[in-house]
Specification:
homodimer, alpha/beta, seven-stranded mixed β-sheet
Chain lengths: 404, 404
Amino acid sequence: MSGLLAGLRIVEGSAFIAAPLGGMTLAQLGADVIRFDDIHGGLDSDRWPVTRDGRSIYWAGLNKGKRSIAVDLRKPKGRELLAALITAPGEGAGIFTTNMPARGWLAHEELAKKRADLISLNIVGDRHGGAHVDYTVNAITGFPLVTGPADHEGPVNAVAPPWDLATAYAGAMAILAAERHRRLTGEGQRILLPLQDMALAATSALGYIGEAAINDVDRQRHGNEIFGTFGRDFRTRDGRWVMICIFSDRHVDALAAAGGFRQKFAEIERHRSVDLKTDAGRWQVRAELCAVIEPWVAAHTAAEVGAALKEAGALWAPYQSFRELARDKEAVLDNPMFTVLDQPGIGRYPAAATPLQFGAVTREPPRPAPLLGQHTDEILSGILGLPAHEIARLHDQKVVGGPR
Amino acid sequence: MSGLLAGLRIVEGSAFIAAPLGGMTLAQLGADVIRFDDIHGGLDSDRWPVTRDGRSIYWAGLNKGKRSIAVDLRKPKGRELLAALITAPGEGAGIFTTNMPARGWLAHEELAKKRADLISLNIVGDRHGGAHVDYTVNAITGFPLVTGPADHEGPVNAVAPPWDLATAYAGAMAILAAERHRRLTGEGQRILLPLQDMALAATSALGYIGEAAINDVDRQRHGNEIFGTFGRDFRTRDGRWVMICIFSDRHVDALAAAGGFRQKFAEIERHRSVDLKTDAGRWQVRAELCAVIEPWVAAHTAAEVGAALKEAGALWAPYQSFRELARDKEAVLDNPMFTVLDQPGIGRYPAAATPLQFGAVTREPPRPAPLLGQHTDEILSGILGLPAHEIARLHDQKVVGGPR
């Protein structure tokens, strides 16, 4: 292992997105991440999307580069093996992350009896330990009522799960913060990260709670417009959409140059007494700006609009579908972050390495996700030091399993 | 400073969300994070939402607990001071994060001449250094075309910015990974994190690129339904909405108990030959499940529905607005993560500390965001060791400024 985090070992009892993605993030930086699952599969082993044979593309995406051990979680012997694995000796070992209920044998206090400097990250739904998923915490944050078409009634859910993503990366960060503390003081600890608190803290950071409390207003639904500056989707002559934004002075000039709007923009400024180089000015006259931009985009193809915006250095992007993305040369096929991976049971498709480029190490290409229990034997032998006949007996007794 | 990251110092030249939020994340864990801005304010100094006086609630939310130094970035002397600050000696110092163009005097190579073990995190738009924001990378990922009402034509933008959030926390993690490497080897490095690659790597992890490439299908727009299992919004008698989901066996039973659906669920299973305890089974008969749940929710108030779902242990949540959230006892007012902060120039409102609870340290309440240049003098004196008359001269020459 040549990555930046070589020497770290994380044992993970996880399902769905936040915990597995956090672990994968560390695995892609070179940590040895071992995911354990029940011998019959985890909650997300068959999660959609799946191949036509029912193999989970979802699972494969979130567990790349990990090792997998499959154990019967109901059998005392299975639990004993996992507790030994979690608390195995080694300077960079003794790190455990889970979003399973961290009670009984999985409780930090219980595991810490075997290794006092254990670090546990317990990802939970809310601060009381209640169940939540991205969709339910999202409802509470307030975002679904301001997402979607301006004239739409009712909530619009997020498809890209913001709170799972935040929890995954913040959790991975927390592991490194705790490992630093342990390195400096010798002290382990339990870290509690509630998905709901993650969402609420981010909602607070983004100013939504402050705005509601201070101005005593509810943010309105503005469709695809970017609140407080300028940005919106526009439709091209050939029925495509482009997102066009202004975040700085430079973007005003670039957009004006791309569409030949300089004079019209100046007229809007004069007529409405606003400065398009300010957020407030752009927001105030956004309808007038759209009235200038819309006919230009509608009169040209996406290729023509894109070429003009790109040439001028405007802030913009084309909308595309996932299938178009999977074939996008610039974003995927020619992007050195992606490698065509041969994922056992699924097939060959482009998969991403870490988006982080560290100067001190070469970025490793993505490695396939393991089959369930693919590394059961090498982990029992290599980390727990069990002899071959003992491992065979555990298989016979159906205490451990895999690969399947 | 008593936080987990006490002893770390990060100097940040940033604007908008990803870079400031990453820095704030580390500040809320106890690091000394110094944000520098141009003496006239940064790109986001007046970013909306703002108070009625035009004070940025946005800026206050993303810079809590940092110190601020204001410097004329165009003056050579101003740049010299900042380069000295970024590369100041100290074991935990010499860490720089920016999403400004890291060229010239801000380039890692240039700064590393003054401190060889410098760590720089450069957040950029795309891997070529081009400009992007959450809205433009989101268009490219494919998510806007599957978000929003099933019958809607055209893209639906995210309001909660998933890629900024991911970049913020992954960037904070990267800083700690690089600091670990420096502690172990003495070596600094530049870290490059393109916002677009962050979004594409997460889209890959979530299986969307794999699904498109392997199954050669485009994910359809499913409105508020959760793809591949069961979950949707429902409207109550009093015109509120609730999100109800099923992610596990337990949630099936709980939902059935809450609404008295046991027999109807069994009939659906028999009639359609599906198993509601599988993701695929629930997804296949989702219309039938909705036909059972919908009239029950529509016949009761939100309070009644919520009480029944809560009592039964179902996976659900009420939708609410930001103003309702700001007054929500459970989520905000009684949540120990929140403190009513007195933010100079803005007022008193609930603001969140870190969502992470570390066993080894007490969570610190959130601290206000600084005024622009509030700590200019103490930083010039305390870190750069400048005498008072020199600092006064820098103010007179308008090389430094603040507070304002």
